[in-house]
Amino acid sequence: MAILLNEEKNLFTLLTDHTMYQMKADEWGVLLHTYYGKRTAVCDYSYLISYENHGFSGNPYEVGDDRAYSLDTLPQEYPSYGSGDYRESALKVRFGDGTTACELRYEGYEIQKGKYGLPGLPAVYAEADTKADTLIMHLKDITGQVRVSLIYGVLENLDMITRSVKVENIGERPLTLERVLSTSVDFLQDGYDMQTFYGRHAKERIPQRMPLGHGMQVVGSTRGTSSHQFNPFFILCEERAGEEQGSCYGFSFLYSGDFYGAASVDQMDQTRVVLGIHPDNFGWLLEAGESFQAPEAAMIYSDGGFGLLSRRYHKAYRNNLCRGKFKKARRPVLLNSWEGVYFDFNGDKLVQMAKEAAELGVELFVMDDGWFGKRESDTSSLGDWTVNEEKLGCTLAELSEKIHELGMQFGIWFEPECISEESALYREHPDWALQVPGKRPGRSRYQLVLDFSRADVRDHIYAQMCEVLDYAQIEYLKWDFNRSISDIYSAVLPASRQGEVAHRYVLGLYDLLERLNSRYPDMMIEGCSGGGGRFDAGMLYYTPQIWCSDDTDAIERLTIQYGTSFGYPVSAVGSHVSKCPNEQTGRMTPLETRATVAMAGTFGYELDVNQMAPEEKEAVKGQIQEFRKYYDLIQDGDYYRLTDPMHNKGLHAWEFAAEDGSEALVCAVALQIHPNGPGFWLKLRGLDADAWYEMDGKRYLGAALMEGGIPVPGPRVEYESFRMHFIREKNA
Ligand code: DGJ
Question: Residue 616 catalytic?
């Protein structure tokens, strides 16, 4: 059992293989947070808490004259607004009488075997080999109007603690939830750095590490999606932490909409971290008896730096978050039509592309945007999911058949959440687009957003999609979303419930994805939002891979994929070889380098194969064979960041190592080349120290590769790359 209980002391200790989390309900019923970090023998960590009389930090009435007891300074498990804790709160309730003071006290607990699930929301789940338990801590506000249940998932061998919160209106009057964050963790000291992942379209998840000072550092999104701008994943770490050493705490939100993540240092130099739905676009009305379920946050602690933290997330998300056939089944190498032909295609052109690609070993052909309605550019037809047979010159079933005759699978692009004003759907149902009464909705990429909080709107889109998907043999669907959401108002909800629209929208998105996944279990859905605008753990529950960025330049991708790797596994990272000069940057890079970079992901191509020179086609054949050979190692192996491309100007390298140390693939890309420049050595990781490894006919001792390293061949051209495969000798 991963949950240890000391009933006498009301002490709750959550144990994973290497980490420990503890809380204690004190004599006043306040649920204190006492410890999160490395696993130790179980003891009551509340002795660390100091009780001092601090000026202007008031005292709950029931503690009487004890001026040293203040919620304003105590480490708490779930701080609420208006309780006398003036720091960041996790919960804010507007009660029926308009007041917002809410003081929570411990009521009781429940322990359940296994990991809880959250209906309608993504959640990490236990597999047969996962040791998991659930703890639910019940709190009630002093006035008896709300019950707050803090839900903890303890996934022992994943070293993960998940959290969620359920709030019930147990009073007699309606109330509004103005803030329900999913997790809050207090640390007794300061001295931490926060590493966040910021970006923009075509430049996502750039790591930024900042020391925390007094005040607050906030990341978040109010764009309706998790966004390109900030990722709902961040790390709190001690100052000395690095890739391989030091304490780090990961905070990951399994949610694809507005989010709010903050770390603050208070007047007593204590640190508080919170993460949950962004309160700015949120207000949830709870009638008496109703309840609200917040999404899940997943936390991991590592005492072995960022590298270990990432590998723990990778494993957990690969095996205990992604679902369906393609969690394990080998995913096909694909060719996507977008950068090859954009909107400029017909059926014959596509078949010609597919034919060439099939000969090179590509297994799946994906027809991207432009096959439906009257779509010849991005100005029209979203919402009209009917096949443009005139453009294709055949039916979709016929096109798919032709592709299958080539021995390939067939995939198709959709953008189900959006609507073009220039569409039959908009002419018929203009009110289905999100728009605020009395104002024209803001456009982005000429398009509006459908009100996915409405079941009737979703049903209509679902029916249209099924018409297409049922009619032809389709093994892959790319689910795109190409704008941020604005004008949030739903025509079918009363004024008092408009604050619910943004979250209801995300629930609607999940509902549709769930329905598609269960109706088409053999079809893989790849997520996408103008590249990586919705690259989050919530989406991974429905789409095991996500197009990482619209920037396909291999050198740019080094940083994007590096940043992404902190919180997400390689198996999630949609990555393609595209043409040169690159469409986004104009940069020339060797074809082999583009392949090296795309292999640190799901691997595919996105160019017009017909335009390739014969020797390039030969190279592609080899790359595909190589990727297939390394598939398990890349997708399931342990991922090591050997360098940091933002600071290492000469060379960037990473490694995939088999968990059992039997093989490793080291990939390196030369960045700046200098004539007569210095050499490069890379220290490998994850090998068997005592074993011998073979690479290119030479033998190396595992320990030597890890302690001394391997020299990287001197690059001859800028951006040249190297892939070095090490195999442990059998008789080792
Ligand atoms: C944005 C995506 O990220 C691209 O890959 C492509 O699918 C376009 N949308 C199509 O409009």
Answer: yes
